[in-house]
Write a structure and sequence with these properties.
Elements: H1 2-23, H2 28-31, E1 38-43, E2 46-51, H3 61-66, E3 69-72, E4 75-78, E5 83-86, E6 89-92, E7 98-107, E8 115-123, E9 136-141, E10 147-155, E11 164-174, E12 177-180, E13 182-188, E14 199-205, E15 210-215, E16 220-226, E17 231-234, E18 239-240, E19 244-245, E20 251-252, E21 258-271, E22 274-289, E23 292-305, E24 308-313, E25 317-323
Parallel strand pairs: 5-12, 6-13
Antiparallel strand pairs: 1-2, 3-4, 5-7, 7-10, 8-9, 8-11, 11-13, 14-15, 14-25, 15-16, 16-19, 16-20, 17-18, 17-24, 21-22, 22-23, 23-24, 23-25
Length: 325
């Protein structure tokens, strides 16, 4: 009887060994010590250590992936570590409306699981709203995808300015790690100044009165004067004539070739029977080519003359001038 019992026990042990070998699982005692090249799992009521290439259960993938493995076609594979990188980019701003600047984001390898990562913009020398539209959200890579772009809307203008930058930063990756998380986006200025030629300019108003000024090499105007500018007054019994002279005042030619200047004065300046109390003048102009400019002049005066207060104005007077030397 004892001999029979021993024989049965030996047969049982042999069966267990054979079963362990054919299933590609390690037996329970070894699995409890941890898997150095695989993942432990409970299958058919016992804990086993499944090695890479060993049989696995796809339904248990959540457990496997937490350890860096996955079950594909019934066999255990090591999940490749996917790395996310964001790249620098640049683009022209345009003159109006909006253009799109695309910021590239790539994976080191196509993942077997969905990869997600958050992104957000931040001001540099460029300012959100006036230079670009702030953006933030989540970028999603489906299994097999490796490249995506983040679209950023750029605000166009005609101002001549230095190139401007902002940053796009990645955060909160899912099923991946970030190896380069911040990119610089450059908004390239594509506007250039209207060319103008420095020198002495001379021209005339619509009334035939001479206009003079000097344009310097740094696009500033000095010595702007008109030899005569007639004004009508209220009450209407008076008309005045006289020169307008901006003297040493300096005003600039804008990048788009425009001129705009104003001058004002108030006080008391007595000349014979007249007491001048207020003066205002404005000049506008535009260079339609490097050596020709035209625009308008307005002059207003107030004065007391023989007991009456007068308000006088030239109205809008057209003028033009060309380079003389």
């Amino acid at each position: 009887m004892k001999k029979l019992l021993v024989t049965v026990a030996v047969v049982a042990i042999a069966a267990c060994v054979v079963a362990g070998a054919s299933s590609a699982y390690r037996t329970e005692p070894a699995a409890t010590k941890g898997c150095t090249n695989g993942v432990s799992d409970r299958i058919n009521g016992r804990v086993v250590c499944i090695h890479v290439g060993g049989k696995c259960v796809a339904a248990h993938n959540a457990r496997y992936r937490a350890r860096g493995y996955t079950c594909v076609n019934g066999r255990l594979r090591r999940v490749r570590k996917v790395a996310i990188s964001i790249g620098d980019t640049s683009g022209a701003e345009g003159n109006s409306g909006a253009t799109t600047l695309s910021v590239p984001v790539t994976l080191s390898a196509a993942g077997t699981s969905t990869v997600k990562v958050d992104y957000a913009t931040a001001d540099g020398t460029a300012t959100a709203s006036s230079d670009y539209t702030a953006a933030g959200g989540t970028l999603t890579f489906r299994p097999g995808e490796r490249e995506k772009t983040i679209p950023i809307s750029i605000v166009g203008d005609t101002s001549i300015e230095a190139n401007e930058t902002f940053t796009v930063t990645l955060s909160n990756p899912v099923n991946a790690s970030i190896v380069r998380g911040t990119a610089t986006a450059t908004i390239a200025n594509d506007d250039t100044a209207v060319p103008v030629t420095p020198g002495s300019y001379q021209g005339a108003t619509q009334n035939g009165n001479f206009v003079f000024f000097t344009l310097t090499a740094n696009r500033t105007i000095t010595g702007f004067r008109v030899n005569d500018l007639p004004e009508t007054c209220d009450p209407g019994s008076l008309r005045i004539f006289g020169a307008i002279d901006f003297g040493n005042s300096v005003f600039s030619v804008s990048p788009d070739g425009r001129i705009s200047a104003e001058g004002t004065w108030s006080g008391s300046n007595k000349q014979g029977d007249a007491e001048w109390t207020n003066w205002y003048a404005s000049i506008t102009g535009f260079f339609d080519n490097p050596t020709t400019v035209g625009g308008t002049i307005v002059e207003k005066d107030e004065l007391n003359y023989k007991g009456t207060h007068y308000r006088c104005a030239s109205g809008e007077i057209r003028w033009s001038a060309t380079l003389r030397s």
